[in-house]
Amino acid sequence: MNEEKYKKMQCILESYNKATNKAVEEIIQELKSDCKTYKQVESEMNAFKKKAMYQYINQEKYEYLFSLARKVLEKEKNDLPITNRSES
């Protein structure tokens, strides 16, 4: 593969990554909009995933999207500061 073609392919992959990351962020924000806890967000995500996977023929295409959304949500939870509940 020549260098020019390789660079074009890299641009295509970068566009795909940006679109995927944007979709993940939008899904998470929408799920969080009506939830008070991360447990609720996870429950809503599971329900949405089941519904979406049932409706679409190319389910494996969305499996990665949901996997990525779960990882992003998990990282967000893990980055939260520790709170001391006994002081509340």
TrEMBL record:
Superkingdom, according to UniProt?
Bacteria
Put simply, this protein is called Uncharacterized protein
**Source organism of this protein record:** Clostridium amylolyticum
